[in-house]
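Weekly structure sync, notes
Attendees: PL (lead), two postdocs, one rotation student
Agenda item 3: pending single-chain targets
PL asked that the sequence for the first pending target be pasted directly into the notes so everyone works from the same version. It is reproduced below exactly as submitted, 502 residues in total.
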Amino acid sequence: MHVSSITPTSITNSNNHYEIIFGDNFLKVVANVESHSLAMEAVQTIKAELGSTYRFSPQPIPSEISSNEAPVLKTGEVLQQTPTASPTPPPAPSPSKPEPVREKLSFYAEAHLRNMKCGKGVTKTSLNEVNWTLNVLQDLIGNKPLDHITYSDVTKFQDAIEKWPANIQRRKDFEGLRPREIIMEGQRQKLKPITRDTKGKHINTLCTFFNWCVESKHLMESPANLIDCSRYKDPTAEQTKIWFDAVDLQALLDPTRTKCFRDPRHFWLMEIALRTSMRIREICQLSVDDIKRDSGLDELGNPIDVVYFNVAEDNDEEGKKKKKSVKTPYSVRKVPIPDYLLNLGFLQYVEDVAKAGFSEVFPRVENKEEDPGHPMTMWFRKYRNACGIKSRKKTFHCFRHTFTSLAKYSLIPENVIDAINGHAPENTCKDRRYATRPNVFACKKYIEKIAFPPTPMQPYTSGRFDAYFETVKESRQHQTAHQESLERREKEEVKKAKASKK
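Predicted structure, written out during the meeting:
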């Protein structure tokens, strides 16, 4: 037999007393116990030379062998030659399974919004922003299957946001236009685009949606991964809003101007916003029942009486629009009414409102379905200009900036400022898990410590706004009569339509 370079039929080593014998179909090892390990090394060398031609079958070695004898092992290492097998044909390809049907972008957009609505913590404003962003994306790239959306599709949205015109929400010439048409019309009219921060807000919303798709295992990778959201943040940018300094406050609350106010909102809103940091909508939607009084203990256990604003929203009722709403869950709070407002006669005013038959603290002539704060925002813009304050960075919302700045200058604790402002606590373990949110009694104690610039406001006198209350009543009676007339006309038309069919 000739196998590779190994041609002898016997390999012996007399010094170590072992012998390897080749056969046609076997390889026999003869060795004593002391030489067995050397013989096995030789066999391994032969195996490496022969390759896969032989199959290796180890067998046990008897232990009862004298060290002076070198008998032939009855059992040893045997390599049996195996016939060369013909190559097996590859298995026939199994019929390919149809790929799973992937839902389209609109399906996952609805699912994302539905998940956001579950539980508390997401406002209607946030939902509207997410819905707007995803609708614009779908209009730009089409209602594609989710896994067909690529980075180039995301860049189309990015380019559109770069050119999106600012402040077009209430412009009728933009109503009904698609995103591409809005961009073209904005460029035609040479409108200023939205701010860098607003662009970043929409980009972050889009990235959050795709990240949710990845976390929910609907996508392997987000197509928005290459977007650097930090480029939309400008650490050197100036504040968009600035506070009212002492000169501004004296001009806004000058008695020569305020004595001419015939609308109680003009008289009270600026003072309440300055000294409580409440938002304009929170103030305008207050009801008489939201003015409450309570007794308790402050953070040191001292008894204290507090009159406060109960800032809350209406309970959810199907089919009914909420009359009162808040920005975030942290906006639901109790805001202590400072002694300055009480001394100014605010409780007397609330009593006069209740006697006049109104349930809200600030009755209004405008349509009740409208945002109660919007008319006052428009009024304040004109009033601010009349007072010589021309900066666009000074809006009604800047009263909150003023309150927060003065509170910090007065060394008020940060968690107290957050509780009064209706802000979430700082995103740290000690603030979220260990620091107790101050109650209304503790807030009352600290709000009195804030140093405000002196403002020469004249106190409220009972009956001052009776003429305004009568105007509101007449306006509402007219609106009610008009609505009833429309309803009667609609019923008559329905009856005529039924009669004509008969």
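Discussion points:
- The first strand starts at residue 10 and ends at 13.
- Residues 466-501 form the longest helix (36 residues).
Action: rotation student to compare against the earlier draft before next sync.
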